[in-house]
């Protein structure tokens, strides 16, 4: 999902699951659960004489588990009884932390630098090793986004800032799209592990989740389904399920801040074709119209164009027209994508990127986005992608016959 605004991204972020807020130590922490003994041995460079604190990450609080003092070489040892898999955070000083996913009875070896969260090595715990992989990639992405934010701030007084910002926006979208795809693959590859909760709730920065339930409900539902059977008694899974139910209910309610609601006449507009001619949305009245917002630099848009090609081949005799509105700024990028991806349907753009008047008219905040419009000009569905789009067109075509 590609978002409209270039956010100023913090260079660090705590990997956290839903509802995990630092709270007061729980009194239940004094009662060790009966179970298998889990052991953690580690060496933290620069940690001689310093304390490390292990806390369990419950759904609503952090529960103290154990504290150890590093010896002169930075070595430490912890052991505790546990009865089920859980997330833990190993705190080192005021800002250092390592997130772990431990199963009862594991013997964990850990090495890193005291007070540093970015680079560490953990062995002996499959869940923690997966977390190490995910957090390493997450940190790499945050470092890149932090550099983009820095360049954005430095360039704001430049005469060619608009051009610079376009390039930064492009890079931002490419980086976040790549991490989203990585995260989706990570979730599907590790669907039986609680670690996918971290992938689901990861953030690029404050207010910018990798997956937003408003737009990525199917991802939330997949994680909920994958974990519900094996971890049904976990409060954090119950909270996830409640969030999915709430999001599903909300998705069926009209969005009060949208001006283009289902059932309303689609707002008319005029924009330019690649050959310089103009076309108005109202010119297509009498056809079903798929109004599609995209960009030539958007990988997700380019992938969805394959579905549009199938839809165009199968259903253009309905009659169906496709009108794509590009949020490109560079004409060459737009034309090259048209030549490579599309065959025969209508293309328009004012080459103003996200500043396009049509973006505001339709309240478009992500691409790809689309609106399905009936022959009378009314919006009948929004954001139909992949098989869902093809199935909807098939149903409309059958009803027409």
Specify the number of helices.
Answer: 9
Main sheet strand line-up: 16-15-14-18-19
Question: Roughly how many Å apart are the termini?
Answer: 36 Å
In total, the number of strands is 19
Q: What coarse outline follows from CA principal-axis ratios?
A: elongated
- Taken as a percent bin, the fraction of beta residues is 15-25%
Helix-residue proportion: 25-40%
The biggest beta sheet, please? Answer: 5 strands, mixed
Task: Give the topology string: H per helix, E per strand.
Answer: EEEEEEEEEHHHEEHHEEEHEHEHEEEH
Low-confidence runs: 1-33, 254-260
Q: How would you classify the quaternary structure? A: single chain
Q: Give the C-alpha Rg.
A: 25 Å
Structural class: alpha+beta
> Residue-averaged pLDDT, rounded?
85
